């Protein structure tokens, strides 16, 4: 998968931050995000035949205060609209 995120959902996708996620993992932790900030996420499948369509942007606001690391034991949140991970 390729995970994209940005503060401005109207930016061209080439200007979004991109993180490649290899293997068959169903979770991924995005680090170094600002507290109490709205981010937009999109995801795209990728395999040997190429890339699939981009998902629609999903909005997420980070916590107002630093929280314990919820994914330290590889437990993540499945977003109902992405049906994948963030």
From TrEMBL:
Residues 1-65 form the Fibronectin type-III domain. It comes from the Eukaryota. It holds the Pfam family fn3. Signal peptide: none annotated. This is Fibronectin type-III domain-containing protein. It comes from Xenotaenia resolanae.
